[in-house]
Amino acid sequence: MTRPIHVHLLPALFEPADLRGGVAVVIDVLRATSTIVHALAAGAQAVIPCGEIEEARRIASQAPAGTVLLGGERKGLRIPGFDLGNSPDEYTSHVVARKKIVMTTTNGTRALLRAREARRVLIGALSNESAVVEQLAAETGPVHLVCAGTDGKITLEDTLCGGGIAHWLDLAAADAFPADDATRLAMILFDSCGRDYDRVHEERVLATLRQSLGGKNLIECGLGADIVTCAEQDKFAVVPELFVHDWEIRAAR
Amino acid sequence: MTRPIHVHLLPALFEPADLRGGVAVVIDVLRATSTIVHALAAGAQAVIPCGEIEEARRIASQAPAGTVLLGGERKGLRIPGFDLGNSPDEYTSHVVARKKIVMTTTNGTRALLRAREARRVLIGALSNESAVVEQLAAETGPVHLVCAGTDGKITLEDTLCGGGIAHWLDLAAADAFPADDATRLAMILFDSCGRDYDRVHEERVLATLRQSLGGKNLIECGLGADIVTCAEQDKFAVVPELFVHDWEIRAAR
């Protein structure tokens, strides 16, 4: 049986109700979902995504002392008074193990909110692409790969990641899946980096991230090293999942 | 001086006011803008685009007898009582020379309406790509390539045409232009067909159109021959332009 897979190049390009009954993967490669993958892989207990700084501070202040860290960014930079910014490399096990992270990012949180009607909401990045594909292959129903974009603009890095997941899932499927044009476009972008995970592929993925709007913004902020970290593929086997009922992101089972 | 070029993958992905001072090119390869190029190349005096069938009938009924033809489609097919459908090959000089065509198409007209605040609104298709590039190269100010899409969905054929125009304009420019991520995505799609106008390029363009949503719909309607016509590149030197003050599309000077 064929199974529809959709890459949505922006959260605004679908209606929330379209995702009912399906499995969504929210993708914000530079950097929210890459950082969430790093945080859970480093042993953080959960990530609590929220849109506003004051909301993050309020949630953190209600938790027992020492159990919660505040993380996130505005315009790429750490928020004053927060424990962590949005660089995946900050989220080491030394810092985050057994902690909950209250994290505020604009584009990532907006995408999660819009995807919340899906039956399951997973979190994807280049760093856990294969693990996401495995989870999806074990699931049934339509797949929705939701690219977060940046301030309503399509981004290359999210499209690339969505195209990669669609490509590997297509290979894993018994039948070719019916792909819409946006999905094909994302897969063609992935193809343009080479289909094999070799040195050429890695270099092209990194180059794509560097020339993207988000990549250029990070370089301007002096955070170019984050691009290298976010471009690393399949470093982790963890698949973060948003549990909508308590609004926490924890490792999927 | 660098000059911004934007491929907008859908009309909804920009604000009309963003186009002020710039030159817009509206692209609906399957089939509205391909048909408009064919109509003017065949000697039609003007095309009057309108969104509603009743509006088209009213405009036509107010014109002197024998000066106007009604053209357009709904769900791919000719509208009952209309003289012409939306197949470019119907618009021969024998039929349309010296006539005005009142044409109603959904996606193309919507895109034209949204682009109307630009300083100039040109009409592009694969069939007049080089002529459009020439017009744009002779102009100043930002360039906005507006992909019409289909019912709010991104389409491969419009993205491909936008990517091609951006590619050739980039080559013609003295400096590299700053491209946003959607524009790069469109250019990568164009690249995936091969950059040279050879047999391989032609075949890949045709294959891209055939596998697109719009292409598949046309094949289902028995209108697959239109895809071949719309895939032909640089057949005509005419650049249709929408003159917003009298809402007529005529050949640009």
Observed structural traits:
4-stranded mixed sheet; 10 helices; alpha/beta; homodimer; globular; putative 2-phosphosulfolactate phosphatase
CATH level 3 topology of the domain at 5-32 and 107-251 in chain A = putative 2-phosphosulfolactate phosphatase
Tell me, what's the shape of chain A? globular
Give the fraction of residues assigned to helices of chain A: 25-40%
Number of helices of chain A: 10
- Strand arrangement across the biggest beta sheet of chain A: 1-8-2-7-9-10
Most extensive interface: A-B, 22 and 22 residues
Low-confidence segments of chain A, given as residue ranges, are none
CATH class of the domain at 5-32 and 107-251 in chain A: Alpha Beta
Write out the CATH superfamily name of the domain at 5-32 and 107-251 in chain A.
Answer: ComB-like
The CATH architecture designation of the domain at 5-32 and 107-251 in chain A is: Alpha-Beta Complex
**What oligomeric arrangement do these chains adopt?**
homodimer
Strand composition percent of chain A = 15-25%
**What is the helix/strand order of chain A?**
EEHEHEEHEHEHEHHHHHEE
How many strand units of chain A?
Answer: 10
Largest sheet composition of chain A: 6 strands, mixed
What's the average pLDDT of chain A?
Answer: 95
**How far is it from the N-terminal to the C-terminal residue of chain A, by CA?**
25 Å
What is the gyration radius of chain A calculated from CA atoms? 17 Å
Going by helix content, strand content and strand pairing, the class of chain A is: alpha/beta
